[in-house]
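Issue: ligand-bound run for G3I - logging full I/O for the record.

Environment: standard queue, default settings, no custom constraints.

Inputs:
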Amino acid sequence: MKLRISVTSFITLFVSFSVLSLSAGAGREGLRAPALDREFYIGAAVDMKPFHEDEVYRNTLAEEFNVIVAENAFKFENIHPERGRYDFADADALVAFASEHAMKLRGHTLVWHRQLPAWITGGEFTREEAIEILRDHIETVAGRYRGRIWAWDVVNEAVEANEDGFRRDSFWYRTIGPEYVQMAFEMARNADPDAILYYNDFDNEGMNSRSNAVYRLLSDLTRRGAPVDGVGWQMHVPAGFRIKNQHRENARRLGALGLELSITELDVRIRMPAAPDAYAKQAATYREVTGFCLSEPACRSLVTWGFTDRHSWIPAFFPGEGDALLFDNDLQPKPAYEAVRGALRASLLGRPQIREARIEGRDLLIAGGGFDRKSAVFLDWRRQNASVAKAKGNTMLLIRGAAARIPPGQTVSLYVRSGDGKLSPEFRFTRTGDGADDGNTTK
Ligand code: G3I
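Outputs:
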């Protein structure tokens, strides 16, 4: 049968096809929509080569995510390739893109032992010279993007799981000494007072020698008053990885230091060629990790390390493994993508709500909805011992002795997590002078 097709409808067909292929989302509501409803940040690391060359790559980023980070463009070897010479071209392009698409931008990373340029690794420097190099780098880079970077990975991977379990041997450690870590945070705070300052590491998610070393480092820094605001869990994991109680235990002890948490480089690698159930196992891991971050008050954002299997570091660094991300080689969503979206949507449904909080004597009383005996209460993401109180048929939560932890005039964040892991919106509570309630829900 000869297919007769008019010129007009051919043009219409062609135009509509090209529009569809350009807009990667093809009408799909991106992950950023439910994430923003939840005041949550979901994002990906950006490879600048496809960023510059592939419009579908850029469109997918813009439609799906509300936070991005450069995979390599902000690293020392790329942004400061020669002594006295900086190259901001790629970083500037990403800052402009994030601004154009109302995205938060994570800065990765100011101080690391890898991807240092030859003029550093091959140079001979006194301690004072090395400190000046560190200062010049941080003040120039963090200063240039002041007010444009949401969170900086100020120091990356500074600990080593050895008997000392503390300091990793590196150019910075050898030339300056262990103090370089605190110096870097102080220089970053000075360069951009509004950026959230993170320490970032890998294999530091559960309770193990590495996470203990990170905890010791962060305890030491916070005790000294170093301006550290958050800790990054990179989470480069295999399909089948499960969230366990030890992850919540680790999140809690870090929260007790007053630190927020982000999952900064999530990818879930698969042994190739993929077994029939590999992508379902991968999706289950993505669902659990996303649900964990959504249900931990301290967990602010979840970033995957890349977003399409076409551009991922995994195959080169984990021979025989790959397909670790949310989108396939053709930038189409995988089961893992649907799992993340499902977790985001589920976190919106049936959330407990805090409507009122007030000091009563030495205690804090919280009123609202969706509370039960399994409810957990968090004060500035420190878990509190709470008991259920009944008043006029309402279920309230009572945190005994909490008044002592909220001096008059101080504002704290209150959260309630239900037994099935649903987290309430943040409730900002300011204790007024006379101890009356002055709380309000931010969302
Ligand atoms: O740009 C050069 C290119 O000109 C050259 O032709 C090519 C071949 O040698 O190399 C290119 O540089 C590579 C660079 O990625 C950019 O693609 C480097 O060799 C390669 O080592 C580098 O790998 C990066 C790796 O960090 C370095 O350790 C990965 O892309 C990057 O995803 C990875 O990211 C790190 C995080 O920063 C920290 N956490 C761990 C994570 C994975 O290692």
